[in-house]
Amino acid sequence: MPRVLSELLRKAENPELTKKPGYILIENVKGFESSDTRNELVDVLKKCHYSYKEFLLSPTDLGVPNQRLRYFLLAKQQPLIFKETTLTNEENTLLNHQILSENVCCHSNLDKNNLQEVESTPGRTDTSDINDRSKSEADIQNTSESMSMSNLESQRDIGSKTDNSVSPKERNIKEYLEALSQESFEDYAVPDKTLLRFGRVMDIVREEDERTCCFTKAYGHYVEGTGSFLQRNNSLTKKWAFEDRLDSNVTLLRLQQLGLRYFTPREVANFHCFPKEFSFPSELSRKQQYRVLGNSLNAHVVSVLLRYLVK
């Protein structure tokens, strides 16, 4: 990405480039907002007379039960301006709350007095909140064996650090699930050897929960930090399965009773808000399907940003 951005910046500053893009949307990993490349990027945008806004957004901010915190930048060639009327009141409030910084043209004229840059203003996410939020998501996705069981159980309630007063109502995981037959469930059940070896570090969620971890391309092949696992038996807990330092055979028996399974590729696509019409080519294996889906952009997040950008 830095190489691509460097090329973009080089072209943008070229005086021979008479027709610059009217709209720009950039997505990058959390941390990019504090990089030298980002600083170079916004400097060029200002020189080229772009209004821009920067965000840190996760699908959970927009009510989707999947965590994937990412940096986004929206830019418009002046005199184009951002119109909040293109969004719902809920979306508009949420985006305004999540702005990291902005350099906007208030009116159609390009008088410098009409340009304003806002960073960490009241009502927006400040640097400490952003760091805490990113840290909480990283903690969930990189749970280690050294963590206490009580801490493991408490992680299920940690989500985005977005203020609840501006967060949309999150939907339960249940709304994104397929209706699997018993045969299909067995096909996606977590193998015993995986339960014994990685049970303590698995991120286990239930149907009524409102978050899952980011699914990577290694999901279905590796365990730790690759995504969440669904528990069917809601009457039991992961803590119960590992309490009392039980014999491995007893622990395995308890883990089996949780009824753990992988999310299907279609369910992962649902968390990414892919349309119902989306399907995989029949020749793709399950492993290939997970690889294609891993770390995908969330279609709903991008659709909200695009509506804000181009309308």
From TrEMBL:
Can you supply a Gene Ontology BP term from the record? methylation
Keywords in alphabetical order, please.
Methyltransferase, S-adenosyl-L-methionine, Transferase
Q: Extract the ranges annotated as region (Disordered).
A: 116-170
State the Gene Ontology terms under molecular function. Answer: methyltransferase activity
**Pfam families per record:** DNA_methylase (PF00145)
**UniProt feature, compositional bias: Polar residues:** 116-125, 139-153
Basic and acidic residues: compositionally biased ranges? 126-138
Among InterPro entries, the record links this protein to: C5-MTase (IPR050750), C5_MeTfrase (IPR001525), SAM-dependent_MTases_sf (IPR029063)
Please indicate which superkingdom the organism of origin belongs to. Answer: Eukaryota
* PROSITE patterns, A to Z: SAM_MT_C5 (PS51679)
Q: Which residues form the signal peptide?
A: none
- CC terms in the record's Gene Ontology section: nucleus
Give the family per the record: Belongs to the class I-like SAM-binding methyltransferase superfamily. C5-methyltransferase family.
Q: What is this protein called?
A: Putative tRNA (Cytosine(38)-C(5))-methyltransferase-like
Task: State the organism of origin.
Answer: Stichopus japonicus (Sea cucumber)
